[in-house]
Amino acid sequence: MKITQVLITPMPRPMPEGMFDPMPEIVATFEDGSRKTLFAFYPDEVSFRPSEFVGLTEQEAHTLYQQKDTAYLRS
To answer: What's the first-to-final CA gap in the chain, in angstroms?
Structure first.
């Protein structure tokens, strides 16, 4: 089942105020209308645009995250 829409929840406030703010999450809407939070991420390490996820499956979305995270860790 493919993703049709993505919401990225708000980014944390700048430090030190945002120290305990939640990390942004990727919330996907699928072809059948269901919604699911796929993952949270550290915005100082990786970034996403909602359009990157449209047309992907849930597994492909997780693979995209892993690829970006691995690239950050190797940099």
So the answer is: 33
Spatial distance between the Cα atoms of 5 and 21, rounded to a whole number of angstroms = 25
Residue 3 token pair: 């993703």
pLDDT digits (tens, 9 = 90+) for 49-61: 999 999 999 999 9
Cβ-based neighbour number of residue 68 at 10 Å: 16
- Residue closest to 6 by CA, chosen among 51, 47, 46, 42: 51
Rounded to whole angstroms, the Cα distance separating 72 from 75 reads 5
How far is the C-alpha of 9 from the C-alpha of 7, rounded, in Å?
6
Q: The whole model's pTM is what? A: 0.92
d(C-alpha 25, C-alpha 12), whole Å: 11
Structural domain boundaries in the chain: 3-74
What was the pLDDT predicted at 4?
98
